[in-house]
Amino acid sequence: MAIILLDRIVAAAAAVRRVVTGQADVSRAAWVAVLAALGVVVATVVSIISVVRTPEQLAPVTLDAPPSVDQLGTPTPGTPRGQAHPAATSPTTAASPSVSAAPPPVESPTSAPAATPSSASPTPAALAADFAIEDKALLSYGAAVTIDNPGPVPVAQWTLAITLPRESLRVSAVQGARATQDGAVWTFVPDGSAGQVPGSASARVTFRVNGAAVGATPTACTIDGVTCGGLSN
Fold first, then answer.
1. What is the value of pTM for the model shown?
2. Cα distance between the two ends of the chain
3. Which is more confidently placed, 131 or 137?
């Protein structure tokens, strides 16, 4: 625009000079051109004055700032100039857990439960018996059987079996037991609490055999199936 205005000003000045100097024919058209040139000059001057007086009305032309090195990123070897690369991002550090895992609780060793005594009754020991003749008469004799308990547990139940030579023989005056007859076999069992054999002790059963001489001694004697001692064959 400035170049066009300057060109018009120069053309107008040349026309005016020709008119003044008389080098050109003064015609109506020449005067019109001169007046037009003067109008252009005046308009130009007015425009320049208005711009100078109100410079804030003109929006300044700004240029974008060149991108920074951080935005372009560091060029890698072998990459042509002018090719932008995305900015390198630093690896993020994994956030450490705020609460560390608690170690598993250590169980304190528990003591073994104390052995409790068995509720079952202890087994009593096997009994032993010893037969003996205590007094002699013409048609009878007195006998005694000693029952021994070698164990610490009392024995409340036992069975003493006496086999006599004949079924006609009778047993009387029984103490420490209760007697029953089955042929020639006489069975003795405890008579209530009096017949209990204490632990590591003994009990006695006494009776009298009637209707026989002294030689009619028992042919067999057992205590709970165990042969008695003291019998003479």
1. 0.50
2. 167
3. 131
